[in-house]
Specification:
Elements (H helix, E strand, L loop, with lengths): L1 H16 L15
Length: 32
């Protein structure tokens, strides 16, 4: 469930940031 949630979040972030979705969530790709 957690993995799916992160994946969904990544997809939304990628869409918002205009970045390609590369599957699983990559913490090193998203630095805040």
């Amino acid at each position: 469930a957690l993995g799916v949630k992160l994946t969904k979040l990544t997809e939304e972030q990628a869409s918002y940031l205009g970045l390609p979705v590369t599957g699983p969530f990559k913490s090193d790709h998203y630095r805040y």
